[in-house]
Amino acid sequence: MEANGSGFRRILLLALCVSGIWSAYIYQGVLQETLSTKRFGPDEKRFEHLAFLNLAQSVVCLVWSYIMIKLWSNTGNGGAPWWTYWSAGITNTIGPAMGIEALKYISYPAQVLAKSSKMIPVMLMGTLVYGIRYTFPEYICTFLVAGGVALFALLKTSSKTISKLAHPNAPLGYALCFLNLAFDGFTNATQDSIASRYPKTEAWDIMLGMNLWGTIYNMVYMFGLPQGMGFEAYQFCKQHPEAAWDILKYCLCGAVGQNFIFMTISNFGSLANTTITTTRKFVSIVVSSVMSGNPLSLKQWGCVSMVFGGLSYQIFLKWSKSKRVEKKKQKS
């Protein structure tokens, strides 16, 4: 009976994690699309300062992680020092800024698809730089994802979707997304290096360190440089409280979503988290198409299916590999 009760509690916890990640990030996607396409106030002005979202997100997540550490963390003094995150903080500031800026040039579904192809630069760098040989099924996954994104980019976007964009320019939008992925790759590698050097580092410590440097860099960029748009963004929010409220909700969604991601990884592992976040991206595209008026053609839905088919196959390969490793451990 106790085992059944424990299993039921794990199912409830998993359901909580899935609903938390889905609701937080799907709603954040809706807000992100709203802020990039909506015209606010009687003067019908666009919020052109999308990089300001990164500063706001960094500040909110910095405060959030500090509160979580004070409430729940048991790390003590064994975690990584705050200054070790300075280099990852740079790429973590530049990368997401490029991803958000891409929404001026391509639609939200196109951005989500492009950012789902993270495996492509990883395998490319692994093959060219490190001489890593991948299996045939892994190349199939990459072919499906790369082919789906490429075909989606080549197909004609509806005039209704294009009319919502601030500055329609597909090549520039996709280029920004792929640069975002490249910077994310460096960020993830640096975070892994820090975690291996300081094993007692917890997720909240990483979140605090990353967002501390993110806040510093974004503050310098937005308010310290001559071309900085921080004051203009502040004035826009002051004149259009609806935009300021959307930005606050966007940031809170990011902080809450991070909370559920950490909970998922610590209780169910990274594979479960990858599965949840991948399906969330597909649902985000469906929500954008239905609710936000970004209609996709039948051919575009075919491209979406190709991409998420490849991602799903990749998840299956990882699951199969983990099962084989478990069997080997049991035999030994």
Could you explain how this protein is built, in words?
This protein is globular. Helix content is 78%, strand content 1%. It has 332 residues and is an all-alpha fold. It has one domain (48-320). The two termini are 31 Å apart. The protein has a two-stranded antiparallel ribbon with strand order 1-2. The longest helix is centred in the N-terminal third of the chain and has 36 residues, at 2-37. It is built from 13 helices and two strands; from the N terminus they run αββαααααααααααα. The chain has helices spanning 2-37, 52-72, 86-101, 108-115, 119-128, 136-154, 159-164, 170-197, 203-224, 230-239, 241-268, 270-291, 298-331; strands at 39-40, 45-46.
Topology of this protein?
Blueprint: H1 2-37, E1 39-40, E2 45-46, H2 52-72, H3 86-101, H4 108-115, H5 119-128, H6 136-154, H7 159-164, H8 170-197, H9 203-224, H10 230-239, H11 241-268, H12 270-291, H13 298-331
Helix pairs in contact: 1-11, 1-12, 2-9, 2-11, 3-8, 3-9, 4-8, 4-12, 6-13, 10-11, 11-12, 12-13
